[in-house]
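ping. complex inputs:
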Amino acid sequence: MPHPLNEDEKQKILNSPPVGTWALMLIVGAGMVLAWLFLYYGVFLPRGAIH
Amino acid sequence: MHIDPLEKKWLYIAFGMVGLFLGAIFISALVSGIHPPSNVETIDSARLHLSEEFAEDNLGVRIQPDGTVRVTMVAGRYGFFPRHITLPADTPITFRWASIDVLHGVHMPMTNMSTMVVPGYVAEVTTQFPKPGDYPMLCNEYCGTGHDFMWSKVTVVDKQTWARRHAKTEGDPS
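pong. complex structure:
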């Protein structure tokens, strides 16, 4: 059974930068941008523009 | 209003992505001259057979003096006429459509060709097909009990094949 955190450990976690969240932001954001760019420039435009 | 700093960062990323996407669309539209089809031209759907352009004998593919291709087609329950056309790849093609009865939609999967054909109006779309192959042309607006079976076929051939066929048929490639 894990031992409960003491107050110092809790404060250390609360005050440390949320690196995991930043990494998630970057991965999700970059993934969506790359997917959109691929669909627009790699699939949509090469099929021929509409006028 | 208090917004958590992390939520603010998410908002910045979301707004940045929307700005990037809109900017890419705007710039490529400007550079390539892409714009929504905006032809407004009326026609009497009940008298298509009496009009010069949409009379049965004049439907199909025509080569314009500037080398572009014009396709005149009629949509009616339940088919697109002519039922099969052949077009060149990598060539500007102007489709002109009229409906003989009700609202229809034209969609060619795996291409960007898609428009509505509204009775009383001529739908005009210019595009080109980069890849040779056989493409179905489907109705994507429900038009009646036979809607599921309303389709035609478009064959896109490379430019050399097109030129050979055109030379053989003396200007009537349809």
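Chain A touches chain B through 19 residues (CB under 8 Å).
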